[in-house]
Amino acid sequence: MKEINVSELKDNMFDAISKEWMLVTAGTQEKFNMMTASWGGTGVLWAKPVAFIFIRPERYTYQFIEEGETLTLSFLGEEHKDIHKICGSKSGRDIDKVAATGLKPFATPEGNIAYEQARMVLECRKLYADMIKPEQFIDASLVSRWYGEGHGGFHKMYVVEIEHVWVKE
């Protein structure tokens, strides 16, 4: 993979996140986990290029994000939806997702985990995090729609600085 400047990104990040999906990966080279995410975004905050992601505390990846300072957002392309489906429906507590999906992890120069299958990787450092709070919703219908029975707990929102962008050569 080659590194590009964040300003060189040509992707429509709305489509990349919501339609293609991304793998959120955190941990060390010795022990890490990844999960599929389709909620989030990118932009500029505090004069930095940032991404924001939402993770439910009951997800196994959550503990890895909490323990570390960095994470990666890997975009595999539409042709790898099968990998995303496994990483979004199975827990790393129960299965070896690398073995189950055929993912080929590698460490970036900073020591973060990315995948050979990725067409693009955003390597990020945590800046801010807070729990989504039901009493802060202005549109209360979203609470029952996304956090009602069978949906799981409220997400934690992370704002992360995009420190490196890697693209497939």
Topology:
Elements: E1 2-4, H1 13-20, E2 22-27, E3 32-37, E4 40-45, E5 48-55, H2 60-67, E6 70-75, H3 81-89, H4 97-101, E7 105-107, E8 113-115, E9 120-131, H5 141-147, E10 156-167
Antiparallel strand pairs: 1-10, 2-3, 2-6, 4-5, 5-10, 6-9, 7-8, 9-10
What is this structure, in a nutshell?
The chain is of the alpha+beta class. It has helices at 13-20, 60-67, 81-89, 97-101, 141-147; strands spanning 2-4, 22-27, 32-37, 40-45, 48-55, 70-75, 105-107, 113-115, 120-131, 156-167.
How many domains make up the coordinates? 1
Q: Biggest sheet: strands, sense, closure?
A: 8 strands, antiparallel
Distance between the termini: 6 Å
* Global mean pLDDT: 95
Low-confidence stretches: none
CATH topology term: Pnp Oxidase, Chain A
So what's the CATH class? Mainly Beta
Structural class: alpha+beta
Task: Quickly give the CATH architecture.
Answer: Roll
Counting DSSP E segments of at least 2 residues, the number of strands comes to 10
How does the overall form come out from the CA principal axes? globular
Would you write up a description of this structure?
This protein is α+β, with helices and mostly antiparallel strands and 169 residues long. It has a single domain, classed as Roll (Pnp Oxidase, Chain A). 22% of the residues lie in helices and 38% in strands. It is built from five helices and ten strands; from the N terminus they run E-H-E-E-E-E-H-E-H-H-E-E-E-H-E. Strands 1, 2, 3, 4, 5, 6, 9 and 10 form an eight-stranded antiparallel beta sheet that branches. Strand 2 and strand 3 form a beta hairpin. The longest helix is centred in the middle third of the chain and has 9 residues. It is globular and about 45 Å long.
